Amino acid sequence: MRTLLVGDTHLKNRIILPIVAEKAVALKCQQIVLLGDYVDEWHQEQKVTLYRAEMNYLLQWKQAMIQRGFKVVTLLGNHDSAYLTRTIHPYSLQIASGFEWVRSQFLQLGLQVALKIDDFLITHAGLCWGNDLETDYFRPITAQDFRMVKMLAERVGQARGGRHWNGSPIWADYEHELLDAPNPHFLKQIVGHTPVRQITLTSDRPDQLIDIDTFSIHGNFMNHLYGDGSLLLLDHGQLEVVATDWTTAPAVQTYLHDEIYVH
Ligand SMILES: [Mn+2]
Q1: Strand ranges in the chain using DSSP code E only, listed in sequence order
Q2: What CATH number does residue 252 fall under?
Q3: Among 112, 132, 224, 253, who pairs with 218 as Cys (CB 3.0-4.6 Å)?
Q4: Does the pLDDT value for residue 234 go beyond 50?
Q5: Residues lying with their CB under 5 A of ligand 1, a single-atom ion
Q6: Is 48:42 a contact under the CB 8 Å cutoff?
Q7: Which residues neighbour 242 within 8 Å (Cβ) at sequence distance 6 or greater?
Q8: Model confidence over 54-64: pLDDT tens digits?
Q9: Cα(7) to centroid(ligand 1), Å
Q10: What are phi and psi of 234, to 5 degrees?
């Protein structure tokens, strides 16, 4: 199935998803996969209104795209998992009522941990050596999946400050955990989670571990974008990087000014 894959959106759904919709139509895609981490962004932890607007948009966008005939899969990210397990991290929304509302929206959205397309395994962060796939990873998460989500959320690898030698499929660090020790049964994977400036394809190698987290904002230089906002097209096992106007889109500059600078 001709599929467009999208990296972490982190409270920028209203800017990124219209770009994704336009590209999905232009490229005649049948399926869209969002790789997770729809909420939390630098310095936004108090902004209930922003979280509400972003979650509302995400849910409505998914519904609208399904009605237009697209298959849409929304994967679970580590930031999203914190809401499902009711664990308020320093980077989560700090307002309790808003936090609970975000959780209810995630249950409605229908998150899942993993997806297979052609030969590729697709998760938020990647399946490392020592991690196994569960069949439950491939269906939407419900409120009854608390234990599964908690296991995934708590397996943080050393590269991200955890006590495990590598992270779960929602936590694995791309460079220091997934590239160093991928699961030998899954050498073709597409992940987000670790910011990259651009998508690098390694189609000349038998192992293909592709990171598509291109929509991140520089944490220390708050008015700067880090990634180039490119998307990934997958069709019959063939990959193609899709450039977007992310770095020059006026909406991005407005966002940086209004949401990042103005506290
Ligand atoms: Mn992440």
Answers
A1: 3-6, 31-34, 71-75, 111-112, 114-117, 120-123, 188-191, 208-211, 231-235, 238-242
A2: 3.60.21.10
A3: 224
A4: yes
A5: 37, 77-78, 193
A6: no
A7: 4, 23, 27, 230, 231, 232, 233
A8: 999 999 999 99
A9: 10
A10: -125, 120
Model confidence at 52: pLDDT above 80: yes
pLDDT given for residue 220 in this prediction:
67
What is the amino acid identity at position 255? Y
- In angstroms, what is the span from residue 144 Cα to ligand 1's centroid? 23
pLDDT at residue 96 in the model: 92
Helix and strand numbers (H, E) in the chain are: 6, 10
* Ligand 1 midpoint to CA 81 (Å): 10
Gap between the Cα atoms of 22 and 243, Å rounded? 12
Give yes or no for a contact between 99 and 154, defined as CB atoms under 8 angstroms apart.
Answer: no
Tally of domains in the chain: 1
User: Cα of 195 to ligand 1 centre, how many Å?
Assistant: 9
User: Are residues 55 and 11 in contact, defined by beta-carbon separation less than 8 angstroms?
Assistant: no
Return the half-sphere exposure (C-beta side, CA atoms, 13 A cut-off) of residue 142. Answer: 3
Tokens of 115: 């997806």
Which structural domain, as residue segments, surrounds residue 191? 3-261
d(CA 124, ligand 1 centre) in Å: 7
Predicted TM-score of the model (pTM): 0.96
Amino acid identity, position 157? G
183: tokens are 């699961």
